[in-house]
Write a structure and sequence with these properties.
Number of helices: 7
Order of helices and strands: EEHHHHHHH
Strand order of the largest sheet: 1-2
Helix content: 40-55%
Strand content: 5-15%
Distance between the termini: 23 Å
Largest sheet: 2 strands, antiparallel
Radius of gyration: 16 Å
Structural class: mainly alpha
Number of strands: 2
C-alpha cells in the first residue's frame, strides 16, 4: 500500500493511506489544481493569501475524514465504502475549475459550468 503524508499550511500533516485517493491525487488532471488559485487575485493585495484549488481540495478531504471519524466515534455506522466515497466526492468537488473559473466561467465556455467539467473529469 502506498502512503503519502502532505504537510498542509493550514491543517498540518495530512496522511493519505487509501490507494485510490493516492492515485487520483497523483493524476495530472488533479495535479493541475496546484496552478489554479482558490482566491483569485487576492494575493496581489494580501501577499500571504495564496491558496490553491489543490490545497483547498486536500483540506476539504482532510476535514471530511475528521467528520467521518467523529461520527464513527459517536457510534454512527459509516461503512468503509461510504467513507471512501465521501472523501472522493469532497476531494473531486472542484476538479473542473479553471483559472478564475467563477469569474470567467460564462466567458470561456458559455453555458458550461465548472461542476459539469468536474463530472467530465471524474
Amino acid at each position: 500500500m502506498k502512503k503519502k503524508i502532505i504537510n498542509d499550511p493550514v491543517y498540518g500533516f495530512i496522511t493519505i493511506t487509501n490507494e485510490l485517493i493516492y492515485e487520483i491525487i497523483s493524476h495530472p488532471n488533479f495535479q493541475r489544481l496546484r496552478h489554479i488559485k482558490q482566491l483569485g487575485l487576492t494575493d496581489f493585495v494580501y501577499p500571504a493569501a495564496l491558496h490553491t484549488r489543490f490545497q483547498h481540495a486536500l483540506g476539504a478531504m482532510h476535514l471530511m475524514g475528521k467528520v467521518l471519524d467523529t461520527l464513527r466515534l459517536k457510534g454512527i455506522e459509516v461503512a468503509d465504502d461510504e467513507y471512501e466515497a465521501s472523501q472522493l466526492a469532497i476531494l473531486l468537488h472542484d476538479v473542473g475549475h479553471g483559472p478564475f473559473s467563477h469569474t470567467l466561467e460564462h466567458s470561456i465556455l458559455p453555458g458550461i459550468k465548472h461542476e459539469s467539467l468536474s463530472y467530465l473529469f471524474m
